[in-house]
Amino acid sequence: EMRSQLSARSLKKKTVLTTDSGNCTAEEASESEVESLDEGGDEEQSHDDLEAEVSNQKQFQQTWIKKADSRRQNKLEAVEAEADDDIENLLREEEEYEEKIDFSADTAGALKWKEDLTQKAAQAFLRQQQSTPNLRKLVYGTVIEDNEHE
Amino acid sequence: MAGGSSSSFSSSSSSSQCLSYAGCNFLRQRLVLATLSGRPLKIRKIRAREEDPGLRDFEASFIRLIDKVTNGSRIEINQTGTTLYYQPGLLYGGSLEHDCSPSRSIGYYLESLLCLAPFMKHPLKIVLRGVTNDQVDPSVDNLKATALPLLKKFGIDGEGLEIKINRRGMPPKGGGEILFACPVRKVLQPIQFTDPGKIKRIRGTAYSVRVSPQMANRMVESARGILNKFLPDIYIYTDHMKGVSSGKSPGFGMCLIAETINGTFLSAELASNPQGQGAAVLPEELGQNCAKLLLEEIYRGGCVDSTNQSLALLLMTLGQQDVSKVLLGPLSPYTIEFLRHLRSFFQIMFKIETKSPEEEHKGGEKVLMTCVGIGFSNLSKTIR
């Protein structure tokens, strides 16, 4: 049952992450999102209105603290090994979710330039190193053509 | 005779307008090229924004030296020393002496004299006093070993050409003395110098003054430790000067020269920290580092070593109206600026081509410099 809960949460996380404004970290957003959905989900409003967003954030923070408290209690009750399991599961979920993002290439080609950035940079560097610069231009500047005609 | 020379001088100066520069950089280059081209020169804003504005003592000493070797130069410096106007006279030469400022070594002055000396009216024979070896400028040993063979390639040779170290002087107090003599030539030979060839032998000098004579041996030992792996023909002289010849400050150092089968001389050098400045340097460490510097210089290669690039380019520019070619290692920033100055003073531009060595183990990228000489002939020299 726990797992099903978590997977549900992770799904929600995904939705949140795609609309994350960047103000909060992923985890905060996910937690708050769960809460906001429970409370009736004024997601669109929060994105439209800046003030609303700020108030929402406050709410999120409060709920997040609450959650943390409840979790602490749970932990106290639970055996340590179980808690470890919980964390591991969480981590696993995150991994899964990352992969899903990679595979779900609905926006085909849009982010293609981001692929192998380091490799591309390395190649460009080597190309620049190997290409022979026009030393004459470097030394004498751009007036070179004019002077040659004279 | 004096009237004749002054009239030719005034005609040359009226045909060319005054060149104007700002800032203290490349002062020597500008003064030397102005003297050779006969164009007046104005330099403004010499350290104008610094707390201690104007020319430094070594620059003032350099200007005095230029005044000594020329005849009829007009030099005007403003009150604060931030503006310099120089109208060059004729290069006169003769027997002279000059006390160089100890804040730069004699090499600073000698480098420029090497550019001017072949074009004097009378052969230059000058005694320079000051610091012979320091960590900034090319040492007298270095110039003696690399610049003189280069002058010979351009046809400036004979018995009159020599650099002799009478006394060695280390910074900060100096106290060294050298003699520089150079014959005059009416025209320079063009050179075709594009293949340095392989390294034939390594020579060098390890000197020590006012410290234990053992220092020189220790430097030699460690330098040989590195160089012996590459070729057997290595001889490093130890030079320990005593008494009056040892100058006023203690110190030691080393200068290494690699000679190729085609007569290229590549050099590297290091000197100990001046007394009271920086940590003490171990002679072993210095010897090792100097050997590594020489290997670096050999890797960069070329037919002229990096300290003499600009001298070679100047003599090519001033040669007969014929094509000169020289293969250099990577151009030094000083040389790049020198090329720009050559263009503004002599309207000459070099053809610059990069050459990657076709074989392996032939060092880094090279630059082939080509130009046609402007047919400069030494007008000051009397024709017999």
TrEMBL record, chain B:
Top-level lineage group: Eukaryota
Record InterPro entries: RNA3'-term_phos_cycl_insert (IPR013791), RNA3'_phos_cyclase_dom (IPR023797), RNA3'_phos_cyclase_dom_sf (IPR037136), RNA3'_term_phos_cyc (IPR000228), RNA3'_term_phos_cyc_type_2 (IPR016443), RNA3'_term_phos_cycl-like_CS (IPR020719), RNA3'P_cycl/enolpyr_Trfase_a/b (IPR013792), RPTC_insert (IPR036553)
Keyword line: Nucleus, Ribosome biogenesis
PROSITE patterns the UniProt entry points to: RTC (PS01287)
Domain RNA 3'-terminal phosphate cyclase insert: 194-298
Coiled coil (residue ranges): none
GO molecular function: RNA endonuclease activity
SUPFAM superfamilies: EPT/RTPC-like
Record localization: Nucleus, Nucleolus
Cellular component aspect of the GO annotation: nucleolus
Alphabetical GO biological process terms: endonucleolytic cleavage of tricistronic rRNA transcript (SSU-rRNA, 5.8S rRNA, LSU-rRNA); ribosomal small subunit biogenesis
Domain RNA 3'-terminal phosphate cyclase, first and last residues per copy: 21-352
Record text on subunit structure and interactions: Part of the small subunit (SSU) processome, composed of more than 70 proteins and the RNA chaperone small nucleolar RNA (snoRNA) U3. Interacts with BMS1.
Family: Belongs to the RNA 3'-terminal cyclase family. Type 2 subfamily.
Stated role: As part of the small subunit (SSU) processome, it plays a role in 40S-ribosomal-subunit biogenesis in the early pre-rRNA processing steps at sites A0, A1 and A2 that are required for proper maturation of the 18S RNA. Activates BMS1 by promoting GDP/GTP exchange. Does not have cyclase activity.
Name of the protein: RNA 3'-terminal phosphate cyclase-like protein
Highest classification ranks of the organism: Eukaryota, Metazoa, Chordata, Craniata, Vertebrata
Gene name in the database record: RCL1
